[in-house]
C-alpha cells in the first residue's frame, strides 16, 4: 500500500509541475502571438498601429520575468547555509546510530550526513527520472539537536526523518519543492515588474494573476500531500521509539528551536554587526540555557507549545494536531538505549560549523571570550536605546546637543507624548519610553564610572550600580515617565549617585575600544535584501533591451508609415461598380428613342398613342447623368468623412452611398473618394 501511495504521489507531483509548464507556456505563446500580430499590423497598416509601443513595452518585461522564473525550476537544490559534511571517521557513533535506525525502519540509510547550525533536521533525495528512479540520499542534522536533546529524543527525531525515506516521500519531494520555489520566484519577479511598469500596459499583472490562480491550486494540493507525509513520518517514529518519546522529542525540538532563534536574532546577530562574536557560539548558547528564567520559559514552551505567526503555507501540520495524533496511539515497548559515548568525536567539525555560521552571515569579526562578549552585548543594547532617545529629544525642538538633563526637562514640561511619537510606534509606548530612559540613565552612570552593564538573557541588559543595590533607580525612572511630577525625585536620586545630568552621554562601548551606535536600527537607510537588489539589477538590464527593441520597432513603423503616403492609386477592398463608366468630363445627350409597334391581343391592350422607348441593339443603354456630376478626393492624414462632407457641401451619408461604404467611416491614407459636385462648402 505504501508503494502504491508513493507512486500516486509521484504522478501528482509530476502532473503539478507539468501543469506549471503548460500555464507558463500558454502565457508566453499568447504574448508572442500578440507581439507578432502588432508587428504585422505596423507593416501592413501603420496608421492603425498607434499603440504598438504599449504592447511591446509591456510584453517584453513580463515575458522575460516569466522566463527567468521558470529557469529556477531546473536548478539544483543547494545545501543549507554553513552545512559541513560529516565523514564516518569523524562521527562513527552518529553513522552507526543512523544506519541501525534505518535497518529497523527497513529503508536505505542516507549516503551523506551534514551538520548545520540550525535547531532542526531534514532529509533529501536527489532522485533521477523525475523521481521514478532512486538516487543519493542526504541527511541534515543541527548541532543544537546533537548537543541538547536527550538520547531517546534524538532517536525519535532521526526516526522521523528516516520515516520519510521509508515512505518514499523524498523521491518526489524535490519536484514539489522546486515547483513551489519556481512559483514563488515567478510571482515575486512578476510583482516587482508590474510595480515598475507604472503607466505602461499591465501584462505583468495579467501574468501574475494567472500564475497566482494556478499557484493557489498547486499549493493546496501539494501542501495536503506534504502534511500527510509528516503525519506518516510521525507514525514511523512512534512505531520505533513509542508515542511518549516521540511526543517529548517534538516538544523539545519546538522549545529548543524557538530559544535558538531568539539567541540568534536578539544577541548573536546584533553584536556581530558591530564586528564582534563569541569564541564559541554554542558555549554562549549553553550559558543562555543555564539561566533559570530561560529554563523556566523553555519548560513552559514544552508544556504549552504555541506556534505564533504560523503561515497557511507551512508544509507541516499544526503542532497541536501532530501531538494529539501521536499521544492517541497505544504505547508499546520502548527499546533500551545504550550510551555509546559522543556521537561526534571530532571537535573540529563543530568548530567548522560555528565558523561557517559566522562567515555566511556577515563580514570579519573579532572573537571574544563568552564573558567579555556578554558584557559587550549588554552595553551595546543600552547604547542603542540611549541613542534613540537622544535623537527623539533632538527632534522635539532642541537645537543644542541633547543630554540626560534635556530629556528630563522635556518630561517635566509634560512633553512626553512628543518624545513617544518620535521614539516608537510600538504597543505600550510609555513602557518603551521608560526602557529607553533607563538605558540613557544607566549609560550616563556607566560613562561616569559609577555603574556597568551586565547581560540578562530575558531582558537584554541590567545595570549593576553598587550605590543602588536596592534597585530604586528603575522604579524612579518609570514614575518619571508616567507622571511628570516624579521627575524631581529622579533628579535627586541621580544627584545622590554623583551624576551630572547636564554632561554629554558617552555613546561608545567601554568593554572594548570600538564605537557603538545602533545595533538593531541602523542610522543609515536599511539595505534591501539581496534578492530584491538582484531583481532590480535584472530589471535594469531588461529595460535596456526593451528600449532597444522599441527604437528598432519605431524605425520600422516610421518607414512603413512613410511608404503608406505614396502616390500609388488606392485599390479599395470593395470596388464601386458604377465608377468605371463615368468619364472625368461627361457629355450629356438625350437618350435615343425607338418606336416599335407593340403586339395587341387579349390582356395586352394599351392606351392608344403610348410609345415605349427601348434601346436599339446597336446602342448601349445609358442613364442620364445630369444629376450626377462628381469630383475625386484623395484622403490625406487627418481626414474624416465629416470634414470632407463639410468641405464639399455634401453629407456623410451621400459619401457612403457614392463610394459603396455602407455605414463604415474608416478611411485609409491615399484612398480616392467620389464626391458629388454642386454643393456649397460649409467649412474650411
Global geometry: flat
Helical proportion, percent range: 40-55%
**Count of distinct strands:** 12
What structural class results from the helix and strand content?
A: alpha+beta
Order of the strands making up the biggest sheet: 1-2-4-3
The gyration radius over C-alpha positions equals 42 Å
Low-pLDDT residue spans: 513-527, 565-627
Question: What is the arithmetic mean of pLDDT?
Answer: 77
Assess the beta-strand content as a share of residues.
5-15%
Gap from first CA to last CA: 88 Å
Main sheet attributes: strand count, strand direction, barrel closure:
4 strands, mixed
Structure annotation, total helices = 21
Q: Helix and strand layout, with pairings?
A:
Layout: H1 2-44, H2 52-71, E1 84-86, H3 92-104, E2 112-116, E3 121-128, E4 133-142, H4 143-148, H5 151-166, H6 170-197, H7 203-241, H8 243-273, E5 276-278, H9 281-289, H10 292-303, H11 319-327, H12 347-359, E6 366-368, H13 370-394, H14 404-412, H15 416-423, H16 429-447, E7 452-454, E8 462-464, H17 472-482, H18 487-496, E9 508-509, E10 514-515, H19 530-563, E11 630-634, H20 641-648, H21 652-658, E12 672-676
Parallel strand pairs: 2-4, 5-6
Antiparallel strand pairs: 1-2, 3-4, 7-8, 9-10, 11-12
Amino acid at each position: 500500500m505504501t508503494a502504491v501511495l508513493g507512486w500516486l504521489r509521484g504522478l501528482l507531483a509530476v502532473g503539478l509541475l507539468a501543469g506549471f509548464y503548460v500555464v507558463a507556456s500558454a502565457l508566453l505563446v499568447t504574448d508572442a502571438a500578440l507581439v507578432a500580430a502588432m508587428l504585422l499590423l505596423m507593416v501592413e497598416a501603420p496608421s492603425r498601429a498607434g499603440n504598438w509601443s504599449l504592447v511591446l513595452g509591456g510584453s517584453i518585461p513580463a515575458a522575460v520575468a516569466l522566463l527567468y522564473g521558470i529557469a529556477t525550476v531546473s536548478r539544483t537544490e543547494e545545501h543549507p547555509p554553513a552545512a559541513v559534511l560529516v565523514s564516518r571517521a569523524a562521527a562513527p557513533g552518529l553513522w552507526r546510530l543512523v544506519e541501525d535506525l534505518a535497518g529497523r525502519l527497513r529503508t536505505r540509510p542516507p549516503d551523506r550526513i551534514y551538520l548545520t547550525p540550525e535547531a532542526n533536521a531534514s532529509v533529501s533525495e536527489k532522485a533521477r527520472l523525475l523521481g521514478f528512479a532512486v538516487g543519493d540520499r542526504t541527511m541534515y542534522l543541527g548541532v543544537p539537536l546533537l548537543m541538547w536533546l536527550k538520547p531517546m529524543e534524538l532517536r525519535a527525531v532521526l526516526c522521523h526523518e528516516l520515516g520519510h525515506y521509508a515512505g518514499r516521500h523524498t523521491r518526489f519531494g524535490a519536484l514539489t519543492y522546486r515547483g513551489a520555489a519556481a512559483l514563488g520566484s515567478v510571482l515575486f519577479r512578476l510583482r516587482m515588474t508590474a510595480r515598475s511598469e507604472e503607466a505602461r500596459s499591465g501584462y505583468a499583472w495579467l501574468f501574475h494573476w494567472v500564475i497566482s490562480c494556478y499557484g493557489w491550486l498547486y499549493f493546496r494540493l501539494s501542501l495536503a500531500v506534504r502534511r500527510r507525509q509528516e503525519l506518516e513520518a510521525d507514525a514511523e517514529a512512534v512505531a520505533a521509539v513509542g508515542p511518549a518519546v516521540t511526543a517529548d522529542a517534538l516538544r523539545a525540538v519546538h522549545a529548543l528551536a524557538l530559544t535558538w532563534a531568539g539567541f540568534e536574532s536578539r544577541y548573536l546577530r546584533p553584536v556581530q554587526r558591530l564586528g564582534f562574536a563569541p569564541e564559541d557560539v554554542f558555549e554562549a548558547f549553553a550559558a543562555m540555557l543555564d539561566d533559570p528564567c530561560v529554563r523556566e520559559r523553555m519548560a513552559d514552551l514544552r508544556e504549552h507549545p504555541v506556534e505564533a505567526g504560523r503561515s497557511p503555507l507551512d508544509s507541516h501540520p499544526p503542532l497541536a494536531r501532530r501531538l494529539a495524533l501521536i499521544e492517541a496511539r497505544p504505547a508499546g515497548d520502548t527499546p533500551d538505549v545504550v550510551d555509546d559515548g559522543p556521537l561526534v568525536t571530532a571537535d573540529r567539525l563543530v568548530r567548522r560549523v560555528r565558523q561557517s555560521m559566522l562567515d555566511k552571515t556577515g563580514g570579519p569579526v573579532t572573537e571574544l571570550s563568552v564573558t567579555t562578549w556578554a558584557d559587550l552585548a549588554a552595553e551595546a543594547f543600552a547604547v542603542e536605546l540611549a541613542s534613540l532617545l537622544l535623537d527623539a529629544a533632538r527632534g522635539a525642538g532642541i537645537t543644542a546637543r541633547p543630554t540626560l538633563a534635556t530629556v528630563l526637562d522635556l518630561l517635566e514640561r509634560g512633553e512626553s507624548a512628543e518624545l513617544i511619537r518620535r521614539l516608537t510606534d510600538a504597543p505600550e509606548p510609555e513602557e518603551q519610553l521608560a526602557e529607553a530612559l533607563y538605558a540613557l540613565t544607566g549609560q550616563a552612570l556607566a560613562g561616569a564610572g559609577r555603574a556597568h552593564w551586565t547581560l540578562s538573557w530575558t531582558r537584554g541588559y541590567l545595570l549593576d550600580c553598587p550605590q543602588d543595590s536596592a534597585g530604586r533607580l528603575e522604579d524612579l525612572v518609570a514614575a518619571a515617565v508616567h507622571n511628570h511630577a516624579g521627575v524631581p525625585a529622579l533628579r535627586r536620586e541621580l544627584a545622590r549617585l554623583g551624576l551630572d545630568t547636564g554632561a554629554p552621554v558617552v555613546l561608545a562601548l567601554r568593554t572594548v575600544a570600538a564605537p557603538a551606535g545602533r545595533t538593531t536600527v541602523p542610522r543609515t537607510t536599511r539595505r534591501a535584501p539581496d534578492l530584491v537588489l538582484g531583481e532590480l539589477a535584472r530589471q535594469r538590464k531588461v529595460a535596456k533591451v526593451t528600449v532597444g527593441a522599441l527604437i528598432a520597432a519605431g524605425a520600422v513603423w516610421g518607414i512603413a508609415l512613410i511608404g503608406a503616403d505614396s502616390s500609388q492609386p488606392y485599390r479599395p477592398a470593395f470596388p464601386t461598380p458604377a465608377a468605371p463608366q463615368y468619364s472625368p468630363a461627361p457629355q450629356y445627350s438625350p437618350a435615343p428613342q425607338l418606336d416599335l409597334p407593340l403586339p395587341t391581343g387579349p390582356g395586352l391592350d394599351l392606351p392608344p398613342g403610348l410609345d415605349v422607348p427601348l434601346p436599339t441593339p446597336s446602342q448601349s443603354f445609358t442613364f442620364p447623368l445630369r444629376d450626377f456630376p462628381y469630383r475625386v478626393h484623395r484622403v490625406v492624414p487627418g481626414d474624416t468623412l465629416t470634414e470632407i462632407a463639410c468641405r464639399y457641401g455634401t453629407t456623410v451619408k451621400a459619401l457612403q452611398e457614392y463610394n459603396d461604404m455602407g455605414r463604415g467611416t474608416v478611411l485609409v491614407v491615399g484612398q480616392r473618394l467620389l464626391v458629388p459636385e454642386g454643393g456649397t462648402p460649409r467649412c474650411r
